[in-house]
Amino acid sequence: MLTAVIAVLGTLAGSFVTGALQLFAQRAQRAAEELAARRSEGLEAVAGLSAALADHRRAMAVREEIRLADGTGARRVR
C-alpha cells in the first residue's frame, strides 16, 4: 500500500514539474517573439528615418543649387 501511495505522489509531482516547465517555456517563447517584434519595428523606424534624411539632404542640395544659380532655375554643370 505504501508503495502505491509513493508511486501516485511521484506521478503527481512529475506532472506538476512538467506543467511548470511547459509554462516557463511558453513564457520564454512569448518574450522572445515580443523582443523580435520590437527589434523589427526599431529597424523599420531607423530605415524610414534614414530615407527621410536622405530625401531632405537631396532637397537641400537642389535648393542650394538653385540659390547659387541666382534663382534662374538653371543648374550648374559640375
What characteristic shape results from the CA principal axes? rod-shaped
- Uncertain residue segments: none
Please state roughly what percent of the residues sit in beta strands, choosing from under 5%, 5-15%, 15-25%, 25-35%, 35-45% or over 45%. Answer: under 5%
What is the CA-CA span between the terminal residues? 99 Å
Mean pLDDT: 91
Helices and strands, in N-to-C order? H
Query: What class do helices, strands and sheet pairing give?
Result: mainly alpha
Largest sheet: none
Q: Assign a percent range to the helix content.
A: over 70%
Helix count equals: 1
Q: How many DSSP E strands?
A: 0
Roughly how many Å is the radius of gyration?
Answer: 32 Å
How would you characterize the overall build of this protein?
- The protein is mostly helical.
- Helices cover 86% and strands 0% of the residues.
- It contains one helix and no strands.
- It has one helix spanning 2-68.
- The termini are far apart.
- The mean pLDDT is 91.
Short description:
The protein has 78 residues and is mostly helical. The chain has one helix and no strands.
How is the secondary structure organized here?
Layout lengths: L1 H67 L10
Give structural attributes.
78 residues, mainly alpha
